[in-house]
Amino acid sequence: MARKLLLEHINVPGINTFDVYRQKGGYRAVEKALKTLTPDEVVEEVKKSGLRGRGGAGFPTGMKWSFLAKPEGVARYLVCNADESEPGTFKDRYLMTHIPHALIEGMIVSSFALGANTSYIYVRGEMMPQIRILEKAIAEAKNAGFLGKNILGTGYDLELYVQPGGGAYICGEETALLESLEGKRGNPRIKPPFPAIAGLYGCPTVVNNVESIAATVPIINDGGDEYAKIGIGRSTGTKLISASGNLVRPGVYEIDLGLPVEEFIYSDEYCGGIANGKRLKATVAGGSSVPILPANLTLKLANGEPRLMSYESLSDGGFATGSMMGSGGFIAFDEDQCIVRNTWNFSRFYHHESCGQCSPCREGTGWMEKVLHRIEYGHGKMSDIDLLVDVSKKIEGNTICPLGDAAAWPVASAIRHFRDEFEWHVKEPIKCLDTNYGLANYAQPIAKAEVTTGN
Amino acid sequence: MLKVEQQQPVEFSSALKEKFDEIISRYPKGKHKSALLPMLHEVQAELGWLSSDAMDKVAAYLDIQNIEVYEVASFYSMYFLKPQGKYVLEVCRTGPCCLVGAEKLMNHIEQNLGVKEGEVTADGLFSWRGVECLAACGYGPVLQIGPEYTFYENLNEQKVDELIQDLRKK
Predict the structure, then answer these.
(1) What is the pLDDT averaged over residues B43-68?
(2) Contacts for A58 with CB less than 8 Å, ≥ 6 apart
(3) What b/e string do you get for B20-52 counting C-beta neighbours within 10 Å, with b at 16 or more?
(4) How many Cβ pairs closer than 8 A exist between chain A and B?
(5) DSSP A221-252
(6) Above 80 in pLDDT, residue B3?
(7) What pLDDT band is residue A446 in, cutting at 50, 70 and 90?
(8) pLDDT, tens only, A370-413
(9) For residue A70, what pLDDT is reported?
(10) What are the tens digits of pLDDT across the range A3-52?
(11) Which candidate from A168, A251, A346 shows the least CB-CB separation from B138?
(12) CA distance linking residue B97 with residue A190, whole number of Å
């Protein structure tokens, strides 16, 4: 069994309290960082660890930190992005619910590294129970002298606050999150300037995902080099994967990056296979925004080698035959699921969540939803399928923030890999209302899954 | 277009104002507008929804324009701009939950309560609506009930019936 870095003590009773967390070795990273390292040395360890942002973009965290501007006399901020809303992703909720102190400890270490004296954890408003848990954990840590003025007698001051969101997927985008934290609508900002130069209140700011921040704790405890030994290639360390859909045991799993996808789905240590004895039809490997893959391309690369759970392997083959790691939201579809219906569902989601700033996204997501709705309900035309591809291409890359891309990719990839299922819906407008297309050839060996649409 | 229902003037309790001041103290001087979202949550928890008068009073408290509150309240999906049932059942309707039966569950809730999405039952106790991903995809279908957003996981029709019955008795 692989070593757990974040979830090692998840089953210890009372691990959500300061005392038990401390007994299990918690807050050692704070002591080590504040007493024996300089802020730059902490940044250096995180760089060495090779940690990549766990929120979805996969940008190296240490490098992001090193971009932070440090003008004299200007406050700097660390903001934790806990606005977990990507369909298929629920790892941050899990971590905050069960081991809130892992996040608090990571926030202290990271704030110290960045020279921030006030930091915020922006939690999506629906997670009110988690907000209460974090507020309690912050009070406990403050009581024990790990937050507030002159932490552990080192002269370092840090105040930590929890900020509730208002229910908007777009606030997971870092500049929209900052707008929201300033008490405004969550409209993403035009970049540059990047938050590292002008972020919260116009000051230099770093925004990091919950899991990235929690991962700094084992990195400081064991050293960046040790962390980098786990994983494969440029995908270092462990990753929390949220597994959902038609699986025997959905839930949150901590894996060493590089685990074969097949083992993750079928081994008893992880998801335990497809529920109800069904067969796998398709997966979305990294949250709803990443391209959907049929079963055959999920398990194997186009060249027949096993696909691994790593940034590189999941995106192997580009969008033609690959997907993305994203936020690690792994959704499995069994043979009874309708890809058209699911694509329509996701499109409705993006239409609902588009902030409305950029016309291609505001209008395009609505058009895609409508067209997909009519195909799903038996009113579609053959030309609608190419229309969807056309609309998705006109959204992709033409918006201020990546929500446009995130809305376009699931539609484009569903048609790329499941075009025959869309065509069947058009050809069988009555039958498609109460029957599903089924597994077809989507689990057949790779040769069957040739790319046909060329996009 | 934003439509805000009118209501009798509201008065914030001193406990609520104390909470406001605590929230405002979290931000640097002059950046108190940051308190807007958490304050609106507090107001909604107390009053059940955000009337125009309640929003105007929040604006006055923060010394910002009324429109700055309206534009925020209408942007975020959690704020109610019209009266709701005492318990609002918010069911996740996004992909992963639908793979495990969320749509069936919503139909069942509609039948059980006898009201359509967004409507309030005659006794004023319940309303329901589908909401987008609640980040609990592995435990679907799920629903939540404000103002503390209590969470109910791995639901089926029977569990929802029991839940509704329990809430009726409260």
Answers:
(1) 95
(2) A52, A311, A325
(3) beebbebbeeeebbbbbbbbbbbbbeebbbbbb
(4) 152
(5) HH-HHHHHHSEETTEESEEEEEEEESBSS-EE
(6) no
(7) low
(8) 999 999 999 999 999 999 999 999 999 999 999 999 999 999 99
(9) 94
(10) 799 999 999 999 999 999 999 999 999 999 999 999 999 999 999 999 99
(11) A251
(12) 34
The DSSP H or E segment spanning A217 is helix A210-222
Residues of chain A contacting residue B63, judged by C-beta atoms under 8 Å apart = none
Q: What is the pLDDT of residues B156-169, one digit of tens each?
A: 999 999 999 999 98
> What is the pLDDT, as a whole number, of residue B6?
58
Residue A167 has its nearest CB partner, among B68, B76, B139, at: B76
Q: Is the pLDDT reported for residue A300 higher than 80?
A: yes
- For residue B13, how many other CB atoms are within 10 A of its CB? 9
Q: In the 8-state DSSP scheme, what is residue A332?
A: E
The two tokens of residue B155 are: 């639901």
Q: What is the pTM of this model?
A: 0.94
Strand boundaries in chain B, DSSP class E = 87-92, 126-131, 143-145, 150-152
d(Cα A327, Cα A330) in Å, to the nearest integer? 9
Q: Which two tokens stand for residue A159?
A: 């105040």
Distances (CA, A) of A282 to A91, A274, A330, A414, B97: 21, 11, 11, 10, 16
Cα–Cα distance between B18 and B23 in angstroms, integer? 9
User: Which of A344, A345, A372, A376 has the highest number of chain B CBs within 10 A, making it the mutation to test binding with B?
Assistant: A345
Whether residue A245 and residue B28 make contact (CB cut-off 8 A), yes or no, is no
Give residue for tokens 């962390």. A227
Q: Which of A86, A132, A183 sits opposite B36 (nearest CB)?
A: A183
Q: What is the pLDDT of residue B4?
A: 54
- C-alpha atoms less than 13 angstroms from C-alpha of A93 in its C-beta half-sphere: 26
- Please determine, for residue B146, whether its predicted confidence score (pLDDT) is greater than 90: no
d(CA A392, CA A441): 25
Helix A39-49 and helix A100-114, axial crossing angle in degrees, nearest 10: 120
The reported pLDDT for the residue numbered A448 is: 43
Q: Is the pLDDT of residue A292 over 60?
A: yes
Residues paired with B152 in a beta bridge: B143
Is the minimum CB–CB distance between B131 and chain A shorter than 8 Å?
Answer: yes
A439: confidence class by pLDDT, cuts 50, 70, 90:
confident
Q: How confident is the prediction for chain A on average, in pLDDT? A: 94
Put simply, the answer to whether B133 touches A333 (Cβ < 8 Å) is: no
pLDDT of residue A455: 46
CB contact under 8 A, A166 and B26: no
- Say yes or no for a CB contact (<8 Å) between B137 and A246: no
CA–CA distance, A343 with A205 (Å, rounded to integer):
36
Select from A96, A122, A126, A292 the residue whose CB has the most chain B CBs within 10 Å, as the one to mutate to test that interface.
Answer: A126
Distances (CA, A) of A206 to A117, B100, B166: 13, 37, 45
Q: Residue B38: list chain A partners with CB under 8 A.
A: 163-164
Concatenated DSSP letters of A270-336? TT-SBGGG--EEEEESSSTTSPEEEHHHHHB-TTSPBPEESHHHHTTTHHHH----TT-EEEEEETT
Give chain B positions within 8 Å (CB) of A85: 132-133, 135
Residue of B nearest to A336 (CA): B99
